[in-house]
Amino acid sequence: MILIISNNNERTTNKIIKWLLQMNKRFIRIHEDEIFEIKTENKKIFLKSDRNTFFLDEINSVWYRRGGLNIKRLSYTNPSINAHMNEVQHWLEDYVRATLESKKHINKESNSDVNKLLVLEKAKKVGLEIPEYFLADNTDLVSLDKTIVKTIGGNPILDNIDEDLNGIMYTSTIQKREKGKFFTTFFQNKIDKEFEIRVFYLNGKCYSMAIFSQNDELTKTDFRKYNLEKPNRNIPYTLSIDIEKKIHLLMQTLDLNSGSLDFIKGKDGTFYFLEVNTIGQFLGVSHVCNYSLDKEIANYL
Amino acid sequence: MQLFARQRNCQLLMKIKVKEKNQLPLTFKHIEPFNDQKLKKPNDVIYILECEKYQTNFYIRERPIKSLNRLL
Fold it and tell me: Kindly report the CA angle at A213 between A212 and A217, in degrees rounded to 5?
């Protein structure tokens, strides 16, 4: 039995399920708003929610996509008992989570959020080239038009930031100095790019796509500012064995067996690593390059 | 790529102005809006279904993408 931890409204999950159905593989999909209780029957642990019930030992593989496994925790009126029971419940939950994560899996809930700053340091250590970066609360040392800013958070989207309006923080070039100070911000050298590369990594294998975003003013700094009238040209791409080995090393260091990595090929011929998204979208790469990643994932599970 | 599905609404050039007492990172000066309300236009309506087979309340009825290998 395959355990899929995802959101109720998540399209990529549906695509993988389509393959699982085709392959006659049994699965349980759990949602972000589902709350489980840990119970036992005949000396065996099982998890129960309003929608699902499954024994821990019947799960053979786990795909962590989005959301999380929520486990109900009881509280007690006596503070001393409450503290003790909190610990008891913690260890029971910990056992369940650790057991599930020790099974064959694609991504894990426990390390699905990565720290962009630590990832850059680790990428440097494994020998990947990265554009110079620094943190600052002013623009005094910023080279104008040669520096970009981007968020160090995982999600650049701010839902409902204004009435009926969502906001998005694209990677942007700094064109003028700020007079005052601001909250510590991530700055990085802007690379004159030949093209961008999106890599989907799965268990040691890299599936890459080149994105020719440099000739379009809209997509020049951030290709996610898609030009829908005239989309960027995207083609399958093969990275050098040396870079693929370094990617593999980086992913092992981060304890990730799947993820999407962003690279830029600079006009200087260097391949610069930008960041890794553990739960990013990969179906675009799959469709454009005919990689059938949805099938690969279903096959592995 | 994370934004693939939502991107269609995102061609506005105006900036969002944020007022907060505490300092914010410089990225907030470059925040751009995209208005999901546009999805409500009749042509953009997405039909979703509750689907037991896929264990979701948000199954989207869509025409399957024809893979390249099927065209060869």
Answer: 145
Confidence of residue B72 (pLDDT cuts 50, 70, 90): low
Q: What is the pLDDT of residue A18?
A: 92
Candidates A116, A3, A115; CA nearest to A52 is A3
Write out residues 258-287 of A within 8 Å (CB-CB) of B: 260, 277, 280-285, 287
Instruction: Determine which helix (DSSP H) or strand (DSSP E) holds A81, and give its type and residue range.
Output: helix A79-102
Give pLDDT tens digits for A218-260.
666 666 666 666 777 888 999 999 999 999 999 999 999 999 9
User: Which residues contact residue A156 at a Cβ distance below 8 angstroms, ignoring those fewer than 6 apart?
Assistant: A150, A168, A169, A170, B3
- The pLDDT value recorded for residue B10 is 42
* Alpha carbon of B71: minimum distance to chain A alpha carbons (Å): 11
Looking at residue A223, what DSSP letter applies?
Answer: T
ipTM (interface predicted TM)? 0.77
Contact status of B55 with chain A (Cβ, < 8 Å): yes
Distance separating alpha carbons of residues B59 and B72, to the nearest angstrom: 29
> Can you say how many angstroms the Cα of residue A169 is from the centroid of all Cα atoms in its chain?
17
* Each residue's pLDDT tens digit, A188-198: 999 999 999 99
CB contact under 8 A, A166 and B24: no
B1–A224 C-beta distance less than 8 A: yes
| pLDDT band (50, 70, 90) for residue B5 | very low
DSSP state of A228: S
Nearest Cα neighbor of A234 from A222, A223, A244 is A223
Q: For residue A76, what are the contacts with CB-CB under 8 A and spacing of at least 6?
A: A82, A85
Q: Evaluate if pTM is beyond 0.90.
A: no
pLDDT of residue A135: 94
Q: Which residues of A274-293 are buried (b: 16+ CB within 10 A; e: fewer)?
A: bbbbbbbbbbbbbbbbebbb
CB of A243 within 8 A of CB of A215?
no
Which A-chain residues 70-129 have CB contacts (< 8 A) with chain B? none
Q: Which residues contact B39 (CB under 8 A, 6 or more apart)?
A: B9, B45, B46
User: Are B60 and A168 within 8 A, CB to CB?
Assistant: no
CB of A288 less than 8 A from some CB of B: no
Which of A182-191, B25-34, B35-44 has the lowest average pLDDT? B35-44
